[in-house]
Here is the input.
Amino acid sequence: MSWRYWIALTALLSTPSFAQEEVNENEQDNDIELVKQCILNEVIGGDGEQTLDELRQKCSALEENKQLTALDKRKAREEVSKKNRNVITPHKRNYILPLSYVSHPNDRPYDGFDELTDEENGEPLDNLEAKYQLSIKVPLYDDFADDDQAIFFGFTLQSYWQIYNSEISSPFRETNYEPEIFWVNYLDEEHVLWGDEMAIALGISHQSNGRSQPNSRSWNRIYADFIWENRGFVFSFKPWYRIAEDKKEDPLEADGDDNPDIYKYMGYFEFSGAYRYQDHEFSFMTRNNLNSDNRGAIQLDWSFPMWGRLRGYAQYFNGYGESLIDYNADIERIGVGILLTDLL
Here is the structure.
């Protein structure tokens, strides 16, 4: 690519014609960045045969759409990373909570630690621990006739670390691994059933904690995820079907179902939502088994600006199934920390 092309590209990225006068300053900056990302995406991952006029025409379509949704913007940002071999695309949130307090830690799977603690101290697990999540995805196939469709491989790791518990050598008390494969389709405007924007995902996931008996936990699910946006509020309704496993004759056997009653606590669906106000993001997640015992969970999240790429993050969880080892334990947790990637 010639130096003249780069000079023209720099002028194109700095031109004020992409600015929007009818939106507030934060939204204006975000939309300008979105157009710049579109142009850079085409330069980095395109075929190299497009002229500057063609780039302007393609990416200025973003400017002409005065109702860019949060889903549109996230999709556009992901397009940049999808074609950049030096960047990993986030899937769910990526964060670390160095301080998280659990009101009643579930120490039943760790009875063997009792001998390492003083009898007067009681429970071997500390109420204070660290929690973090790493979640990424990569496209497996995106050469559909419709650019709004793709097949992804996703992987999410969530870990709980008794970092302040020196009495039992500060172990990672639980780590959950969830690989999944899913197809996603952003619907055309005429096919949107409700809201301003809509996407549908179909996938299969395996989640386990990678431990031996008697603390092995795992399950496999087929799921659908209906995602829609209405006036800046993004919602997700995710029902699933658990793939049955063979019943165990002996609980200590390696093969078979480690947790046959998990549906009684995790339920059959997850409903969540998120909203971004200026540079703050608020979200919720809820599950319920829809039985008379009313078992389920709720999670509330708030992220806020700090400096540079880092954002502050606060999380509250109450209910069952925060982790696989705690799927049948009622957990209440509040934590604060650092967020690397957000939802919207």
Summary: Confidence is low (pLDDT under 50) at residues 1-24, 114-122. The radius of gyration is 23 Å.
